[in-house]
Every structure is written in C-alpha cells, then in structure tokens.
What we know:
Strand content: 15-25%
Helix content: 25-40%
CATH class of the largest domain: Alpha Beta
Low-confidence stretches: 55-61
CATH topology of the largest domain: Rossmann fold
Largest sheet: 6 strands, parallel
CATH architecture of the largest domain: 3-Layer(aba) Sandwich
CATH superfamily of the largest domain: Response regulator
Number of strands: 12
Distance between the termini: 99 Å
Mean pLDDT: 87
Amino acid sequence: MATAPQNPTIYQVAEKAGVSISTVSLAINHPQRVSAETRARVIAAATEVGYAPPTRTPGSARPGHHTVAVIAPFSSWPSYALRLGGLLQGFSKDNVEVLVKDVPAVNLNAAPLLDTLPINTRYDAVVLMGVPLSESAEESLAGGRMPVLLVDVDSDLLPTIVEDDERDGRILARHLVAQGHRVVAFLHDHQESFEYVSSGIHRLDGAREVINAAGGRMEAIELDSTDAGDALRRILSSGATAVIASTDSNAGYLLAAMRRAGLEAPTDLSVAGFDDGPLAEALGLTTISQPFQESGRVAAAQLSSMLQGNAIHLTRLTLSGTLVVRASTREVVAED
C-alpha cells in the first residue's frame, strides 16, 4: 500500500534556513520581531520546500459563522480605531466575529513590507490596514483561497480601499493660498524606510504642488519627538506663516510647543492638520475630515460578499476627505 506524500513541515523550513523552529514561527507570525535578512531566508526556505501553514475551509467552524482578522497599527495611529469602528458597524447584522491584531507602525520599521501575514490559521478572511505588502506576499495572497481586503494600502493585485491623500493635501494648501500664505511648512513623522510611500508623504506632495504653483515655497520638517520644540524652531526659522501637519495629533504637539513658547495660532502661525477627530474639534483646528469610518463600512460590505462566495467587483476604491475650517488658520496680515 503506497504511503501518502507528507506535506512539508516547519521543521524542514527551519533546517533549510539554518534557524530554529521558533525563529521560523516568529518570521511567519511576527515578522517585525526578526531581522529583514532572517525573514527573507525563512521565506525563501519555505518557498523552496513548498511549505504553507495548515489551512481550513473558510467557515468550517460553524455554518454561516465567519471569523475575520483585522491587522493594523492600532496603538500607533488612532485613525485605525475609527476604521475598525466602521468595520464593526458594517458587520453588525452579520454572523461575523472580528479579532484584532496590533502591529508596529510601519514608518518606524526599517523593513516595512510584510512578507507574510502575522497571524495563524484560525481566520476565514483578513483585513489588512496601513501595512504594505511585499510583491511576493501580494502574489501569494492573491492566489490563495482566503479572502484578503486592504484598507489604506496600495496594491495592483488585491482589492483595496484608499484615501486620495494627494488630493486632500491640495485642498488644504488651496485654503492657505487663498488666505495669502506663500511660505508653508509641512510637519511630518519620521520615516525609517522609503520602500513604501506613507499617507503623510502623499499629503506633502499634493500640498507642495499647490504651493509651488502659487509661486510659494514648501518646507518639509520632520517631527523628531512629541515635544515639537525643535520642529517649531525650524518652522520659525524657515519664515513660514502657516503649517500643515500630517495628522491632527502632530498639529496638537506643535500647538503645545507654541503655547510653551508664548505663541498662539493663528495670531503667530496658522496651523492645520488631517483626520478631524475629537482632538481637532477640541483644538479648534482647521483640518481635512477623512472618511475613516466609511472606509471600514465599505470594507465590511465587500468582505461579507466575498465570504458568501460572490465574485469581488471592487479592485480599488478611492475615497476623499473634506475641508473643515476652524479658528486655527487665518488670512495673512500685512505688516505696517
């Protein structure tokens, strides 16, 4: 009687890669906890031996019941909690259990592109928010059986829901140009790797386009700490009359630094941001209201259809924000 062929195991991957079994597990389930070199070696070994984590048929736990994993840098960026809220609203009438996994912010990761999803095999579908994938990971997931939907992540192979950050940057910059501002600083977070383009950089590109077209100058200034004192000094030295912060949180750090320095917005410096959460309203901050909850609701609707076995018609949905003008920006006052 012939013996059934055995599937490749994690032990074979470890032997091929020259690492321990625990290292293979970390590279697959927690890729941020191993070096880029080790992760690449494990992925190459797994590909060579034909290893894949054990899978189950979607929905096999209970008929009509589905478990969805949502992966995002929740603890780093509050906006992903708002997207999650929209997703939960969208699933409220479905028999769907949502399990949340927090991952580090990609802007601080020297190797930001995920080669594998940092999860085990208990899920029927995955929503990946704000974490870019490597080319090989996209190809693998696109060819797999498990539905995967991306939010705030660009992809040519997987369905994705994104915000038009460049357009939003242009909208905010036009508001400042109309107020007479021509030298504008853009306050953004540190980005360890440029293997991907962050939302903040897209916003900067859109804003710079408008400022340059108006004959002005855009100064990109990195926020190196939440203190923002050094960033404020560089902003003032640049001659900027207005600041666009890449998020409302960063605008808040800047406003706090201004208060410590005896400065006020908009009297001394106009300040604007992006997101429009409760913080922006409390600060009286001019901002771009982002459709975070809408993106979550749309993701839930699309994923529900995918879990029911329907063909996915969404390949890329682009949402746009709206300008909310508050007291933190004003027209440039001519000096006597």
